[in-house]
Amino acid sequence: MTQRTLVLLKPDAVRRGLTGEIISRIERKAGWRITALELRTLDQDTLEQHYGEHQGKPFYEPLVEFMASGPVVAMIVEGERVIEGLRQLAGPTDPIAAAPGSIRGDYGVIVRENLIHASDSEESSAREIKIFFPGQA
Ligand code: GDP
Ligand code: MG
């Protein structure tokens, strides 16, 4: 089942110089390919669309502020079961609960600055690819 997913390497990953490390983990998964990649600073409108489901939650405003605090690396990754696979590679939202070996488990400590976003379903992936790479939707 070939799928596409939207991945963001968050501003903490870019600031800490971890993008190469994370990208190489993704590339090493057999058959997965990066089909779009861009360094970009996100504006409020894009973040509102992307994180709309979280509007009104206590962590929403600081999350948007953090996500706009520096450039992110936005990517489309394509491959076999890549939606579930990238969520596994990323690990759970709370990096302390994430197993060592996962990206969040190896590099993260605080919940907000958890290095990576990956679409959580086919519906989210289609919606998020449209936001970040409208030409490829
Ligand atoms: P994800 O799909 O694993 O990225 O998690 P969610 O979609 O639930 O949340 C989006 C992002 O908001 C997370 O990746 C975190 O950066 C942040 N976040 C989620 N829950 C919390 C929370 O309880 N506290 C804080 N500070 N940030 C959170
Ligand atoms: Mg999510």
Automatic annotation (TrEMBL):
Q: Kindly indicate whether the keyword Membrane belongs to this entry.
A: no
Identify the residues that bind ATP: K10, F59, R87, T93, R104, N114
Give me the segments passing through the membrane.
none
The family database entries (Pfam families) matched by this protein are listed as: NDK (PF00334)
SMART domains to which the protein is assigned, alphabetical: NDK (SM00562)
Q: Which residues form the active site?
A: H117 (pros-phosphohistidine intermediate)
Question: Hey, which family's this protein in?
Answer: Belongs to the NDK family.
Q: What is its EC number?
A: 2.7.4.6
Cross-referenced Gene3D superfamilies: Nucleoside diphosphate kinase-like domain
Report the gene name.
Answer: ndk
Where the record annotates domain Nucleoside diphosphate kinase-like, the positions are 2-136
| Top-rank taxon | Bacteria
Subunit structure of this chain's protein? Homotetramer.
Q: Which reaction does it catalyse?
A: a ribonucleoside 5'-diphosphate + ATP = a ribonucleoside 5'-triphosphate + ADP; a 2'-deoxyribonucleoside 5'-diphosphate + ATP = a 2'-deoxyribonucleoside 5'-triphosphate + ADP
**Main location, first listed in the record:** cytoplasm
List the GO molecular function terms. nucleoside diphosphate kinase activity
The name this protein carries in UniProt is Nucleoside diphosphate kinase
Function, in words:
Major role in the synthesis of nucleoside triphosphates other than ATP. The ATP gamma phosphate is transferred to the NDP beta phosphate via a ping-pong mechanism, using a phosphorylated active-site intermediate.
What keyword terms does UniProt attach to this protein? ATP-binding, Cytoplasm, Kinase, Magnesium, Metal-binding, Nucleotide metabolism, Nucleotide-binding, Phosphoprotein, Transferase
The record's InterPro entries line, in alphabetical order, gives: NDK-like_dom, NDK-like_dom_sf, Nucleoside_diP_kinase, Nucleoside_diP_kinase_AS
**The protein's required cofactors:** Mg(2+)
The subcellular localization recorded is: Cytoplasm
